[in-house]
Amino acid sequence: MYIEKRRIGRSIKYYLVYSYREKGTVKKIRRYLGMNLSEEGLNKSQLEAGKQIKLELERLNTAVFDFKLSKKQIERLNRYEKKVNVYHLRGWDWQQFTENFTYNTNAIEGSTVQLGEVPLILHKKKVANAEEMETRGVASAVGFIRSTNEDLSLKLIKKLHNLCFQGSKPFAGEFRNVEVVIKDGKGEIVHRGVPLSQLEYKLKDLIEWYRKNKNKFKPLVLSAIIHNQFEHIHPFQDGNGRVGRLLLNFILLKNKYPPINISLEDRAEYYQTLQEYHKNQTLAPSMRFLVKQYKKTLRQVTTKRKN
Fold this sequence. Notes:
The structure is a single chain. Among the domains are: about 1-40, no CATH class; about 65-95 and about 105-110 and about 175-305, Fido-like domain (Fic-like fold, Orthogonal Bundle), CATH 1.10.3290. Helix content is about 55%, strand content about 15%. It has helices at about 40-60, 70-80, 90-110, 120-125, 130-145, 155-165, 195-215, 220-235, 240-255, 265-280, 285-300, and strands at about 1-10, 10-20, 25-35, 60-65, 65-70, 85-90, 180-185, 190, 305. A hairpin with a 2-residue loop joins strand 2 (about 10-20) and strand 3. Helix 3 packs across helix 5 (about 130-145) and helix 7 packs antiparallel against helix 8. The longest helix is centred in the N-terminal third of the chain and has 21 residues, at about 40-60. It starts with a strand and ends with a strand.
């Protein structure tokens, strides 16, 4: 905050100004302090105006890409965290989670590899086809997000894609240079990735938003927002679902939360929550779904409660 002076004839008007940037535009909150104030009067008026500006800042909505959340809405979303007991996975738990996650996240995208085949594929000397390559790739990506100290970046997103699809897709690790659409089983378009002309801007906006807002949200809400917006952008020619679910868990692990496995049997509900986000700009369905998946995940593995 700073004092702004405006000279009107022989008089001086004083204002307290707070300047901030919103989506590339500089905006200001200005409060009138008085005219021809003494130093004592200026200090007194500045103190009161500062309190008013702080209250207004608290009421300002938080932009979440194409929509906004009020402070109360953020508080309501953050309360979903209370519905989950936080446990930490141990060595054997991690092996079981990795196998379950790898099977489900690939099966959601149409892989025919069965759950019982995953550990065999992970220990084979040589893989036989693209599906087996992607089984190993996703498992490797899980290991990476578990151990890395990196923060969210475009480089990290491309690395996850490369880990998953190196050897199986010629565009592994590269953002798309074509338009993409997602169709349902009837061949009808249910979502379009952002236009190619906006792709670079939207990706940079994702990272900038994360850096500015990551401390406003509890880990489960933050991971849902990043995952949903990533899927909305759809930056790769193929493989967006798998990378998006890895990003969901990357945010959770970064904040010392256990990971979530989204089950194949819940695929329809999962897709519906994404549609609610894309079309209606609502996060509540995603939060309810993730809480349910969290509880299911933690039932599937032997866990140790966080002290």
